[in-house]
Structures are given as C-alpha cells and as structure tokens.
Amino acid sequence: MKLKPLYALILPAVLLSSCSKDFIDRPSLSGTTTGNYYNNADEVRAATSTLYSGLPWRNYESRAQDAIGDVMGGNMFTYTDVEYLNFSVSSASDRVGAAWGAFYKIIGYANVMMKTFEEKKAAGGGAAYLDPAIAECHFIRGTLYFYIARTWGAAPIITDPGATALSGNFNIPRYLQKDVLRFALDELKLAETGLPESDVPGRLTKYSAKGMMAKLYLYNKDYANAKAKAEEVINSGKYMLVDDYMGMFTKMSQNNNAETLFSIQHQLAGDPWGTGNIKNPDRGAGALRTAEADAWEMYVPSLDLLKEYEFGDLRRKWSVMEQGWSNLNWKPQRANSPKYNAFMANGFKYDTLQPTEDGGSLSPTRSNIIKYFAGPGKSFGGEAVLGQNSGNNVVLLRYADILLIYAEATLAGAASTNDAKALDALNKVRSRAGLTPRTSFTLDNILHERRVEFAFEGDYWYDIQRQGFAKAKSIIEKQNRGTVTGANYITTFTEDKMFLPIPAGEIVQDPELGKDPVPYYN
C-alpha cells in the first residue's frame, strides 16, 4: 500500500516558506482560506500523507541516520563521515545540519496542518476525519521531538510558527532536554487518544503511539510505563514478527507488513527523485553496480559488529554480505566486461579474492550491507531500482523493538531476570534468528540483541547513549572502528560527545541557541 501523495490539496492552506530561522517553517501570510479545502476524509488524509513521505524525511534518512545511528554507534565503517567514526563532529557537519533541518521542517508541516485542521473543525468541519488527522500530527511532532532530544539534548520547541513569525521575535532558546522529552511524551499521549484502533497498512494507529511511548519511557528509564505500553501493543494481537527478515528491508512487497508500527513511505513511480529510498547506492557492494542500479558502498559493516554475531545467527546473512554470501537470482551484467559477466552469469557471489573489475568485492572490512539494498535492478534479477532509488520503506518502529523494550523494561535495571513473559518476548526475537532460547538475561544480553537485530537501522548509538556516560564510554572504547589493514580504537571519548552540536548556521542566526538551556515548563 502506498499513501496517497499530496500535491495540490495541501498548497492553498499549508504553503510553507522559510523565515529567518531555518528551523522555523511558517505558513504563508498571504491570507489564504481553508473554506474550500479539507471538506472530506480523502482531502485530509491526502494532506497528512506528506508527513509519512520520503520527501521531507529525505535529508535525515539519507546518510544522517546512518552517520549518527550506526557510524557513531560503531556498527558501520566509512571513509566519508570520519568525524562520526572518531567522535570529532563539529557544528559545521553536513549530517548535523541535514538532520536538524529535516526534523524541524517536518515539525513545521505538522504544526501548520494541526492549526489548519483545528481551525477547520472550529468552523464546523467534520470531527470524524479531522480529529484523527490532528492526532497524526501529534504523533509526528512527538516522535520528532523525541529524536531531537536524543540527538541534541537541549533544543528549541516550536508549536506555532505563524505566531512566531508575526511576533518578529526569532530569539528562541534551547529548552532543557527533560522538558523536550516531556513535550514529546505529551504529544504522543494526545496521538494515542486521537488515533484509531486500526487503519489501512502504513497509517498510524493508537498502537503506533503506544509503541513510540514505550520507547521514550525506556529512554527515560521509566521501566513501569515502558513495560505497560509495550504490553498493550503485544496484547493487541495486531502485530507479529515476519518470517522474511531480509525481505522486510529489500522487497517492496514487504512494505507495511505485520511487523511495522511506523515507517517512512517511499514511492518508485515515474520520476522518484525525492520520493524514492536512496539508501541503495550508499550500502550496495560496488560489484553490483549496473546500468540500472548505483552502488558505491559508502557505508560498510564494522569489524566490531561482525564479531558481535553469535554463531548461527541468521541475521548475519540477512544483514551482511561477506565471503560466501550469494544471491543466485541476481545476475548483474555490464557492457564491455566479459570477465565480470562470466563471473556473474550463474548468479551473484560475494567474493573477496576475485579482482574488483572482474566482480570481486574488497571493501575496507571485506563486507557490505544488504539491509535496504534492493539489488542490481529488475533486469538483472533484483527488485525495481531507478538509479539511486528503490521503493523500500524505511522502518522507524517495528514489533521486534516492542518485544525487546518489554524484556528490558521487565529487567528494570536489575542484574538479571528469568521472568517468563520477558523471556518469551526476548526469545521470540532470538527464535526467528535461529538461536537457542535464553533461560535468563542481563542488560548486556539485551544490548547485544538490540545491536544485531537493529543493525543498520539508525538506532544503536541511542542505545549506547541512554546508558549514561560511564557505560557509553566503556562500550565505545572497546570497539574496533578500523579496517582489515589496521585497528582503530577511541581513547578520548568525553562526556561532551554524548550529544551532537547544534548547527553553526542556526546559532549565527539565533545566538540564544548558543547559551545554556532554560526550562520550557514553569
């Protein structure tokens, strides 16, 4: 299922233009009216579909998500985003600016839509279709402020960009991280109340909100509430672990499957630029580059991650290409490359001995990523790919996370637990991976499970960070962040590395962002 894209419907009422601060998007002040718009569910749902679209999320999910979540977390090696590998990120970093801009732009969309729908409702619009749309906006706003609080710590909160623009006061401070998290939680509570019990695949429901609340509660170490919300999702019976783990990230047919609670919706039709998933080229092995599919392996698995997998863990071959990995359905061919074509004629074989020009793979860690790599193109036995674009949704919350949240929240900071329900949740995830069940587990067991389960999904850095500085330092300094030709260990991890710097350009425009944070709540 693909959410209906929004073009003409949203422009009259939610036309956005930049003001003097990049992180404040505001409505046009041209005096447009909502009178002729948002008069039925289709029009309103077409508008909110923008909040799920790859277009506004693009600058986060393309590279910033990888650099922050997995390069910083020690799951990926890269020659490109070395500052994230070595924790030398500056306020001028492209990824910092891209993530900040994407998050606040989407919040801007949600802010303006919410205000528009509330005004429409006050003028007599149908609550039956406006209330769920308002709840979708609350979910997006809550989720993004949660992401912002995890990434930057203290940060500005913008709820009414129009009022800010009209006031002329753009000196907006950073608010305490605990207040940003509180605001995010309040938004998710509103989403939980207003979202429906169920909807078409891909749309948010109240269980999406419950799941994200569970994740936020866990981040806050509020174990009782994290457990309760995760249990509500589990007991709903609406979600399950899918059998095709690899296909969840590589096949369009698996978009919005039974494991997905929230994902960015991608489209691959016509000219997909801006709506397609462009993780494909950054992850794919160069040996799979064809006339249809780009692949330049910007990010590769780290050596440290590779040693994390237990023997027999099926997630390794479902997530990583390395010596011996193959896909006999993929038969990439290239013009004027007889040796390459002969090597690939009977199917793709990941080979680190063959010369690269003849089909070999020789990445810095002798491995490549399969998650979100759709293959060499439809003509060569893979999924449909148009240059840099695939049609695979990017999953931001899935049921495996809910199960592991439940298990960790049951542990609740104890040394270990053998609680039956917690073990059942953990072992469901392990069973799919072909591993033997645990009879008890510790926090380190959970962190291990999360690392390999969600590798290359942009989450592991936050799992490290939420442990606190001392534990984070211990984890980071044990990681080999090097290549097969030389190990690299971080020896200077300091507490100021726990959060990213605010983009330099934002501080230039708003000096308040460079000052100490202040309370948002009285």
From TrEMBL:
<feature type="domain" description="RagB/SusD">
    <location>
        <begin position="306"/>
        <end position="515"/>
    </location>
</feature>
<dbReference type="InterPro" id="IPR011990">
    <property type="entry name" value="TPR-like_helical_dom_sf"/>
</dbReference>
<comment type="similarity">
    <text>Belongs to the SusD family.</text>
</comment>
<dbReference type="InterPro" id="IPR012944">
    <property type="entry name" value="SusD_RagB_dom"/>
</dbReference>
<keyword id="KW-0472">Membrane</keyword>
<dbReference type="Pfam" id="PF14322">
    <property type="entry name" value="SusD-like_3"/>
</dbReference>
<keyword id="KW-0998">Cell outer membrane</keyword>
<feature type="domain" description="SusD-like N-terminal">
    <location>
        <begin position="83"/>
        <end position="218"/>
    </location>
</feature>
<dbReference type="Pfam" id="PF07980">
    <property type="entry name" value="SusD_RagB"/>
</dbReference>
<protein>
    <submittedName>
        <fullName>Starch-binding associating with outer membrane</fullName>
    </submittedName>
</protein>
<dbReference type="InterPro" id="IPR033985">
    <property type="entry name" value="SusD-like_N"/>
</dbReference>
<keyword id="KW-0732">Signal</keyword>
<dbReference type="GO" id="GO:0009279">
    <property type="term" value="C:cell outer membrane"/>
</dbReference>
